[in-house]
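Example record

The entry below shows one chain as it appears in the dataset: sequence first, then structure tokens.
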Amino acid sequence: MKYDVVIIGSGLGGLACGSLLAEAGLRVCILERSNQLGGCLQSYRREGLDYDTGLHYVGGLDEGGSLHEAFRRLHLLELPWQRMDGCFDHVLLGDRHYALAQGFDRFTATLSRDFPHQQEQLQRFADRIHRASMEDMEVSAWDYLHECFQDEELIQVLGATAMRVGLHRESLPLFCLAHALSSYIESSWRLRGSGNQIVERLARTIREGGGELRCRHEVTGLRIADGRVEAVACSNGATIEAENIICDAHPELLARLLEGQPVRRSYLQRIRSGENTFGIFTLSLRLCPGVIPYFNHNAYVFRRGSDVWQPEECGEEATAVMLSCRVPEDDSPFARQVDLLSPMSWSTCQPWEATTVGHRGPDYEHLCHTRSESCLHLAERYLPGLSAAVERSYTSSPLTYRDYLAAPQGSAFGLRKDWRRPLQTFLSVRTPLPNLFLTGQSLVLPGIEGTTQTALQTCSAILGETNNNKIQQ
């Protein structure tokens, strides 16, 4: 059988594309290398509780928000979303506490109470990020903040939550910082239950549209003739033909698949030369019942303010941690699960680069133990007594991301964007081959918003090729 579209990878980008294209009437087949769909959206279960790997909160779901229409098309608004507190993110720099609020006026007013001498500048900043454009890809976030504000502490606060886009002082474009803040200021939400609900809903739409989802189908080659991809080859021996191919995997995988093929060398060099964002160390905590009250917001804790813009350069010790609380599914006022997320560079994990799961030895266990203890130490600045409330804990590192999600260097947010090289670091959904397309967080923006919006662009490119405009319905 020849498909209209074969999609390599079943992360959010691949599933979103598959859902939209299947509903538009195309024959879709998604190929996933592992035995579970979902990429960073997938969850795992331990002793009766589900733990998420990547999903912690989402912005812009209110009507008119940046993700509302896309999630409506994908049937994801029907999931049990819970609005977060008015002050959705709390930032602790050393012993100083600040809050970021939903609604641009309230966002400005809240920070202006702490920085009254910067109120006018805060209003200009809020207006700027609310209307961020593609031109901001060529603007340095660090330089813009220093042009806009005189208070170094405020600059640290405004960058504190942007670790989720791979915050980097020298390279971060204002475009990425703006989107890391603006959709959450519009409105912030948590999902009651696991991120697998998103995976299952998108997979259901694909199957209802006649599409197929095949796990344990790792793509190892492309068959190209007359300047087009005719088929993909899988490690299990399967060869699958398609009119169009979408790659939802990291661009480095695409470069390997195109090696030796009749494709422009400059294109391969471009996607190979990209620098990866840092990885994430996650300490997932199962708490004793009835001890830690549920908190309906996130907290970002930094050892000191100077750690905000280079949070991964920390070796074994954590200098920054994000606290995210799981919504109690039994409506209890107490939390049962809290995730602590800390940026971690690949260099910290490199001594174990050649190892596999279960064979990393006591030195790696020591690394995880040391990082876990330092994460808990930082987290207790916001939640005193947290360590004593831990019943069980589970860890993952950039090595885990590499092994389970095929993320090169354990990158949590794909390729790093650079305002100095926008043409090289922001990638188009189109490739030199007219029926080979890209999607995913490495192209324009990382995270739920960036990946979803990129999927819409990918689908528009595909449907344009097939003279199909049903995606607009």
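Notes for this example: Residues 467-473 have pLDDT under 50 and may be disordered. The chain is about 35% helix and 20% strand.
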